[in-house]
Amino acid sequence: MENKFKFSRIGYVYVPATRIDESIEWYTRHLDFRLIDKFHEQGSYLAVLHHPHQHSIALLLVETAEHKPLAIARNGTSFPIMALNCPDIEFTHRRLSEDGINPEPLMSIGDGGEAKYFFFRDPDGNLLEAAWSIWDPQDDYKEDFLRSGE
Hints:
By secondary structure, this protein is of the alpha+beta class. The chain has helices at 20-31, 89-98, 143-148, and strands spanning 12-17, 34-41, 44-50, 58-63, 72-74, 77-79, 82-85, 107-109, 115-121, 127-133. Helix content is 19%, strand content 36%. The protein is globular. 15% of the residues are buried. The mean pLDDT is 91.
């Protein structure tokens, strides 16, 4: 059977970083990313980061001299540039709070708490969302993440 899809999935997401090495350290320490590669291209560095899920998309930190966080406004209010799934969102909220990340309060959606989320910012001011829902897809973890215990 021949596939007729023009696209099959989101490949990666770009996020600006003014101090790329500090951002790499922050994303790996606080958000469970792992650095896969860092290379110089078109006058600045790019860092490729992966999460432990087998089919997760990559995050590419793009070094930039200009401090211009990505910004999305929804009805005049800041909206996150991406959402990161959490298997245990209460644990994630508590750990980020303990690490001084200052996440916003945990919010619930639906009558039975079918979804929960909170917002927080990275070192460059990019607004991120931590999210959990009963509809999150199940996926296997990458073996090298499991073996290393990270």
